[in-house]
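Researcher: Last one for today. Full complex below.
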Amino acid sequence: MENLRIALDAMGGDHAPEATVQGAVEALKEHEDLKITLLGDEDRIRSVLKERTYPADRLSLVPCSETIDMAEPPVAAIQKKKDSSIVRGMRMVRSGEADAFVSAGSTGAVLVGGQVLVGRLKGVERPPLGALIPTKNGMSLLVDCGANVDARPSWLVQFAEMGSIYIQKVLKKDRPTVGILNIGAEEEKGNSLVKETFPLLKADQNINFIGSVEARDVPLGLADVIVTDAFSGNIVLKMYEGTAKMLVGEVKRGLMSSLLGKIGAALAIGPLKKSLKKFDSKKYGGAPLLGLRGLVVKAHGSSDATAIRVALNQCVDFYREDVNGLIKERMEEAAKQKRELRSRESGQDS
Amino acid sequence: MENLRIALDAMGGDHAPEATVQGAVEALKEHEDLKITLLGDEDRIRSVLKERTYPADRLSLVPCSETIDMAEPPVAAIQKKKDSSIVRGMRMVRSGEADAFVSAGSTGAVLVGGQVLVGRLKGVERPPLGALIPTKNGMSLLVDCGANVDARPSWLVQFAEMGSIYIQKVLKKDRPTVGILNIGAEEEKGNSLVKETFPLLKADQNINFIGSVEARDVPLGLADVIVTDAFSGNIVLKMYEGTAKMLVGEVKRGLMSSLLGKIGAALAIGPLKKSLKKFDSKKYGGAPLLGLRGLVVKAHGSSDATAIRVALNQCVDFYREDVNGLIKERMEEAAKQKRELRSRESGQDS
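Model: Here's the assembly. Have a good evening.
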């Protein structure tokens, strides 16, 4: 493999730049063919780097004078803050100076930047954000969970195809199952988007469609890829996070409210942690923005060094397996099929 | 108060008719002005009643020869099974023989029956299903969680108004807060439905609108009433149930996998149960179908006698506080305002 070059937003996330720089250093040690460019505040990055040893020939720094805040309106931020780490990193992917960009910063800015600055692969209607969510069975790719709120059926079909390629190549799972998020198992259930999309997915030979997945079954991991519009996908993601956080908090409060509870908790904490470890989202990497001319990964805002390292590793697999090449191929094939269908139909007309 | 007459689907739910009959007997003992009609299989109901004492003058039985299964397509079931407990119960509300109908049976059949057989109050565009969900702070009414998947902004405004009246009168909470389910806190966030509905809710003087509620904050109980379309609402409800169930299962499995875990769990189980008790949905009653000419309550399929009793009590409060009278008034007022606005506009035109 040629060297993989990743641009990393060193300023993104709650624990930047310590966590981002540390994650980069760790990833460089794991992969000898990896090059990382850190983007951000030069002084702050250098002061973190100073305390660490790293392969200096594979780690470079691009100083940026601006930062995009989490709360900033993303479109305006992308337009105005041309010297921010997000805009600079995206531009490096666009120009071919980098193969991938990773950021734990503003989701909105990453989404807008991906579309506007990096740009779509030919044939991709809308690039979706796919979240890897931990389940009882391993993990599922929930796609779209943030980019396209008012989606169309043809977009969801592409989400399913791109998501399948991703799971197959990056998570090494053969013939990944695809489900559509729905409010019942029967084919006649759903809103108009689901009803229109269902037969298209069913007819798609390129995916392993298993039908509807109800929200209550999402935590069980019944499908490898779950397609949906970004409004519903975001609700699933946030309900999952919110419910788990609230419940764990209530359990802790309940245990700590009495002596017996405290003793019991002290004894049980080991086995409990072990059993809940698989739900630690850090292990699973960031959310890939699929269908762009290059890879963009949005890491969680709360990412620590491990989460950043995993997100960087994710890019390595994506690149090694040529996921974008496969997506391009798939999209071109679909476009060709559509053209043939159209010319056959117009042939029948005349 | 005049006698309140409730028709109860004795055959609905996983534990019918034992749980339904027992719940009815308990509710009759609590309310001396309550009359209940049990609908369903005569022999089975009588065999449960035989073992119990109850005020026979306030408990009657209407034998029904048919049952609507959970999996049956609801529209066809409602049309064909005219002697089912659901159809008979709905017809009793329609004809004025009963004030309310409670069922733990097929949600689809209850929704279709409510619309088709009971009918809407004048001015109500679409009757929504409102679920009472337990939260860290008490409970919230999630409306719509099952009836109208492709909703319009004006429907959501009515959901907010009807939901507010319900919470104020049945749960005795003054000026209940109303939020719209959204994927971000800012006003410009959301899909087109949310963006169009937001300013209408903001301008509505009849409700206490507090803006967007993100899915992750639903378990915290940030708003008393959360309005949304039924597709998103159902996802929230099912993710809540599914995540809690899966996590509790994983915690149990984790604890039971080791001796220390088992001992710890045995010690901590008391305090833990106490702290999680408030999330027991049985305490909160069933899901009211709002805006109908009479009250229809959908109880959970897994309802035990307590859940049925609480759902019957819920009808008592609904009836005593004349919730439907208030909804009617509000809808008429809104229609009047609309007419005035229209005539003023046409006056300006000429």
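Chain B touches chain A through 61 residues (CB under 8 Å). The mean pLDDT of chain B is 91.
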